[in-house]
Amino acid sequence: MKHLWIRFGCFITGYNYNILKNCSEAAFKSVKKYTAAMLIVCILWFFIGFTFAHRYLSLSLPGCILAGTLSTIIIIQVEKQIVLSIHPSRLLLFFRGCLAFMMSILGAVIIDQILFEKDIEIEKISYVSAKVDRILPSKTEELRKQIAALDTTISKKEQERDNYIQDISKHPTTTAKTTQTATKRVPVQTVATSGRDSTVWKTLSDVVVASTLLPNPKIALLPSLDSTIGAMRQQRAQRENELLGIKPALEKEMKASTGFLDELTIMKQMLSASPVAFCFWILWILFFLFIEMLVLFSKLGDKSNDYEKVVLHHMNLQMRRLDALGKRFE
Would you say residue 231 lies in a domain? Predict the structure, then answer.
């Protein structure tokens, strides 16, 4: 359990504990300082990653924890680029500064959307209302076309029904004629052949026509036609109800589907309209920027300690051994 915090610091910063334990107190203090600075950044970005996943990605608790952990791992790997550099180049310092600036803006934006949540909800009302007003004409026009089409179809069906009723009133019954044919054989003449008489027969057909009164067949069509007209009227009433409630439904849908970019647009409108909110947002950016640059400034402000000299010494010894082996095999 001895030097537990130092061991944890070596794990975070990438220092080798076996080398560090033989170094001076100055190297120990450097590890403690880098560990503290990196923990501040990691805690902030764990919270940012967790909140972003919960608010905008709608992940469950394990998913949010995983998102926060991934954010922390990324931050640790980024900071190690500076901590483990003995003499960081200007290009590395420049890119780390640019990265810190971008990360500070992203962090401030996400945090501010949480801090300004109540204000964003108030501004969201007017934002959603304006968005609905742009979409509403096309939606209502589509419903009106459907209602007009249903009215036309219902009128045709009702006219067809009236024609059936008029025809039924004039002709409640119809005459159905049935024809039956009966055949019979009758003798025509008798012919004497070879002393014998033979009779010649002829086949005759009798046609019998019978008339039967039946109800008008259009009577059977009326129930199905009435059912069709009733269904169309229900559809028309449903479309009218949708037309009456389309604006509240659209507003509810828009509020439920408001995403990160929508809230970013709302916050931009808030910042442009309120100097107080803009100044507060700038303060958050500077706060994140200075925290992001904390490890970098700590590295630049430190002189080389004995840990780094030991690492360089080990590197030089290894290079000399490799050079000697190379000359031996030449």
Answer: no
Tally of domains in the chain: 2
Sign of CA dihedral 119, 260, 279, 46: positive
| Residue 82 within a domain | yes
**Tens of pLDDT along 78-137?**
888 888 887 777 888 888 888 888 888 888 888 877 777 777 777 777 777 777 777 777
Range of the domain at 52: 4-122+260-328
Burial class of 67 by CB neighbour count within 10 A (0 to 12, 13 to 18, 19+): buried
Amino acid occupying residue 206: D
237-293 pLDDT, tens digit per residue, is 888 887 777 777 777 777 766 677 777 788 888 888 888 888 888 888 888 888 888
Q: Write the CB contacts of 111 (distance below 8 Å, at least 6 apart in sequence).
A: 48, 51, 284, 288
Establish if 27 belongs to a structural domain.
yes
**Final residue belonging to a domain, choices 154, 188, 215:** 215
Q: Which residues contact 253 (CB under 8 A, 6 or more apart)?
A: none
